[in-house]
């Protein structure tokens, strides 16, 4: 084994050690001398994450749903169309997540909901009313799941918009 291979093995083992420390929630900043640089490296590479995929604090999946009503009273449910790329889909999800995070900012939620409703009015000509619903997918704890409870979509915000243009 040459010196270059030894350096790569050492670097890989060091990174794996930082991942283990991150999973164990060790605060690297408090370590003397190298604590701060190791903390920065771990944050940039994601090695400081706890990887709690099954932990009770795993975030909910979020979505926006639109209830559309036309001039004849017919209703249909729609969702945001998929973006042109994976990145645009992430941006759409970020908008929904922002509304989740801004649960106390009614002005921001109403403004962003109005923007999304306007998109639906444009996408579905003839629509007279759009109800924007933001929902989070609630997962029950394992003990309740074993007792028969199942995941469900929980509403966390709803706003109604009426298109009165042309009336």
Low-confidence blocks of residues: none
Shape: elongated
What series of H and E elements makes up the topology?
A: HHEEHHEHE
Trace the largest sheet across and list its strands: 2-1-3-4
Query: Percent range for helical residues?
Result: 40-55%
Description of the molecule:
- The protein has 167 residues and is of the alpha+beta class.
- The chain has two domains: 3-45, no CATH class; 62-162, no CATH class.
- The protein contains five helices and four strands, in the order ααββααβαβ.
- It has helices at residues 3-23, 35-45, 86-101, 106-123, 142-146; strands spanning 62-70, 75-79, 127-138, 152-162.
- The chain has a four-stranded antiparallel β-sheet.
- A hairpin with a 4-residue loop joins strand 1 (62-70) and strand 2 (75-79).
- The longest helix has 21 residues, at 3-23.
- It is elongated and about 75 Å long.
- It starts with a helix and ends in a 5-residue tail after the last strand.
- The model has no long low-confidence stretch (mean pLDDT 84).
Give the key terms.
167 residues; alpha+beta; four-stranded antiparallel beta sheet
Give the SSE map.
Layout: H1 3-23, H2 35-45, E1 62-70, E2 75-79, H3 86-101, H4 106-123, E3 127-138, H5 142-146, E4 152-162
Antiparallel strand pairs: 1-2, 1-3, 3-4
Kindly summarize this structure in a few lines:
With 167 residues, this protein is of the alpha+beta class.
